[in-house]
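User: Predict the complex with magnesium ion.
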Amino acid sequence: MYDIISIGSATRDVFIQADAVKVKADADSKTGQALCLNLGSKIKIDKIVFTTGGGATNTATTFARQGLKSACISLVGDDPEGREIIRTLEQEGIDVSFIKKHADDVTAYSVVLVDKGGERTILSYKGEGEHLGQVDIPFDRLATEWLFISSLGGNLDLLKETISWAKANEIKIATNPGGTELAHGAETLGPIYGEIDILVMNQEEAADLTGISFDSEQAIFEALDKMITGVVVMTKGPKGVVVSDKKSIYRAGVPDSPRVERTGAGDAWSAGFVSEFILRQDIEKAIQFATANASSVVTQFGAKAGILRKDDWGPWPLVEVLKE
Ligand SMILES: Nc1ncnc2c1ncn2[C@@H]1O[C@H](COP(=O)(O)OP(=O)(O)OP(=O)(O)O)[C@@H](O)[C@H]1O
Ligand SMILES: [Mg+2]
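Assistant: Here is the predicted structure with magnesium ion placed in the model:
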């Protein structure tokens, strides 16, 4: 019996920091800014870090480092990148027997281009990760207390089947959906998510899903509280987090600590919260640990290096949690 199984993506990540990368205002870019490199030049790389990522493997790593018996369900290619992902998970004590290798595409691959200040652009090839389907999930072999669903690449049938299987088997569900799931909209997702236990989204995702403006926090929470029976979390990057357990609203900021590279903050926060929620059923403690975990992750390149180990909250001060 597992404490928790993570399902979703597994990627090979390469971080490349080059001082020559410039950030420039760019009206054509969705974010209003572009990362720029001289066309036709050979650019020196100042730092390169090879690691692994993807919501399923990142969250499984937090669960394992917190002492939870965990497994990971994901698809990789039959290639060195896929083998490296599996090796790093095994090293963490995560059960990899549900990870499938398919040979018709390569393992998902991300190149993260980082500028001097830590801002970044991710080039992402979804590869095998895009093909995860119901046939890849051995539902009859999954004995677990909890299921953590990260992005399923927008595969609605897979999402529906996974959630209804979990509910039918009294397995608790936490999810940190990706943009491709959320693009299906509240009318479609509301009934599917209705009875999940923990839903984590960032502010932009919560606003998009509810169709309510970014700043109307209270209205967003009223809509989400109606949509699902469980705990709703809205993360706000460096501004911290707001959580509703239907009885109270909790708010916390982030500690004043160094920030090097923010990839994996969302996964570290979500999995940190779920770990503590499982271990102690204490929302305030869960917010404090999740925030420490995410703060630690953003001090290093990559989504896994900074993930905290059991009882090692290290130098992380506990953030103050305000309860209303
Ligand atoms: N730059 C930062 N500095 C400090 N803490 C951060 C920073 N970015 C994120 N965090 C912490 O991580 C949590 C989750 O971050 P965020 O809201 O950016 O999630 P996200 O958008 O889902 O991230 P991701 O891009 O990893 O999916 C925040 O609530 C905060 O505690
Ligand atoms: Mg996220």
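DSSP finds nine helices and 17 strands in the chain.
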